[in-house]
Amino acid sequence: MNSYYLGIDVGSVSTNLVLIDDNKKITKKRYLRTMGQPIKTLKEGMDALQTDMGDIEIVGAGTTGSGRQLAAVMVGADIVKNEITAHAVAALEINPEVKTVLEIGGQDSKIILLRNGIVNDFAMNTVCAAGTGSFLDRQAARLNIPIEEFGAYALRSTMSVRIAGRCAVFAESDMIHKQQTGQRVEDIINGLCEALVRNYLNNLAKGKNIEAPIMFQGGVAANVGIVKAFERELKTNILVPQYYDVMGAYGAALLAREEVKANHRTKFAGFHAVAHEFSARSFECNGCPNACEVVEILSDSSVIARWGDRCGKWSNLKNDKPATKPLAATSADAAKTQKAAAPI
Questions:
Q1: What is the pTM of this model?
Q2: What is the domain range of residue 59?
Q3: pLDDT along the chain (344 residues), means of 10
Q4: How many CA atoms lie within 13 A of 95 on its CB side?
Q5: How many domains does the chain have?
């Protein structure tokens, strides 16, 4: 039976799953729209992987993204890491010389500076929508252009049209104004790409020393108009990896492999684990002035995990710890271990 490591990246816009083999090669990937339903989407992704791959053994699992804690509880993750670490690890695996990672996803954007193979500095923008995938999706829909062709329109531009890109609302208003004055759609889209790149560099990269090689990751890396705008602004080539859209999940899988190699055990609960009914709820703790919002995850009506408190009052109250299985276990042994594990 073939063995793989699973990486999961649960974000607000997309949920990505990646399987890698022991040689760190991506064997299978799934890119799904979260649609505000991370539990349902993750279940669908796990079912799809099992259908695609058949009888396989997962010997390690890692999670990242804004929903990393939830995903970790559902599948039994060996390691849970933030997006900065996951994207950096993935970039370095593909190109150990990379010094700058540009990452633009559906709802946020990041810049990561790497020096000597470690994260030296980073910045995140989770507030402004300008330049994110969801904003570009909306503009493509408004112009009745498939998002897959949006960047290609920018490449056909023959002149520069300046668009105000500091704010998503102003950018959209400016685009409409330029359309009303008779500007070509190609030139407007190219102007938008340039405006969004300026916004990214002026906000996230301000004061930072951007050095090549530069790698562009995240769903927006598929937009060739944005890529070319970055290249013109930075005056260097931009590397777009083959699996640009699932690099966070790839990094999580690589980290899981490293963790399991060190511990020789895995907490992965099996594909069947996500078949349980999961739900989430939250409450405000009144134990101190912090008034922490505590998130509870329930499986089949039983609380199996909590997080969000600063002091550990609630997150330290756990039911049974998830069982772990040695890597050398046979499939039959693994099945017994998973059956005996607490419901997750």
A1: 0.84
A2: 3-85+248-275+320-340
A3: 91 92 95 90 93 90 94 95 96 97 87 95 77 79 86 87 73 80 87 87 89 94 93 96 96 97 93 87 89 87 84 72 48 37 34
A4: 22
A5: 2
Residues 282, 112: Cα–Cα separation, whole Å: 32
Return d(Cα 61, Cα 56) in angstroms, integer: 14
Beta strands of 71-218 (E only): which ranges? Answer: 79-80, 100-104, 109-115, 118-125, 214-217
**What pLDDT is stored for residue 284 in this prediction?**
92
DSSP assignment string, 190-255: HHHHHHHHHHHHHHTSTT----SSEEEESGGGG-HHHHHHHHHHHTS-EE--TTGGGHHHHHHHHH
Chain mean position to CA 276: 24
- Kind and range of the H or E run holding 338: helix 331-340
The secondary element (H helix, E strand) that includes residue 179 is helix 168-180
Q: Residue type for 187, please?
A: D
Cα–Cα distance between 207 and 29 in angstroms, integer? 36
Residues 327 and 271 occupy one common structural domain? yes
| Cα separations in angstroms, 178 against 145, 175, 184 | 17, 5, 9
CA distances from 300 to 44, 143, 245 (A): 18, 45, 33
Task: Annotate 89-109 with b (16+ C-beta within 10 A) or e (fewer).
Answer: bbbbbbeeebbbbbbbbbbbb
Q: What is the pLDDT of residue 324?
A: 52
pLDDT of residue 127: 62
- CA atoms of 269 and 323, how far apart (whole Å): 8
* 315 is a domain residue: no
Rounded alpha-carbon distances, angstroms, from residue 55 to 1, 104, 160, 341: 7, 35, 54, 21
Q: What angle do CA 13, 80, 3 make, to 5 degrees?
A: 95
Q: Which residue has the tokens 């890529």?
A: 227
Element spanning 46, H or E: helix 38-53
- Among 217, 240, 263, the domain-final residue is 240
